[in-house]
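Suppose you are handed a protein chain with no further information: no name, no annotation, nothing but its sequence. What can you learn? This example shows the usual starting point.
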Amino acid sequence: MPAPDFLLSLRAKIGHDPLWLPGVKGVVFDDDGRVLLGQRADTGEWALITGMLDPGEEPASGLLREIFEETAVEAGIEGLVAIDVVGPVTFPNGDVCDFLNIVFRCRYLGGEARVNDDESLDVRWFALDELPAMRPGHLKSIEQALAFDGRTHFAPA
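A reasonable first move is to predict its three-dimensional structure. Written in structure tokens, the prediction is:
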């Protein structure tokens, strides 16, 4: 999906300067304990399903929207795993963002995992012992989701 209209409007005013944006990340497990990953179209990297929230959008419903838009998978929220900051991130077009990253553990409810928009090159379920190379933050989110005991992780103060 292209950048949301609100972001394009902001970028028209400030160019590539840093933005502080709310982001969501889903660690989606199926009944076999596999995790849902997408291969990003912009970098080619495998990653958990992530997205930006629209202005005023609730984080949990925004993540479920992103999961469906990108993968055609219907998921349910099991818990809030972590809140942290990711960035600064510089995108291929030169835009710079810092993200307030809200990570949820999710469960598969239905649908067949597939590329469902233009943000991914591929979408697949991976067994935990067969994960592709990923950024350390995504691996950390998977570890935190696996160990989730109802307590949310925060970066040390």
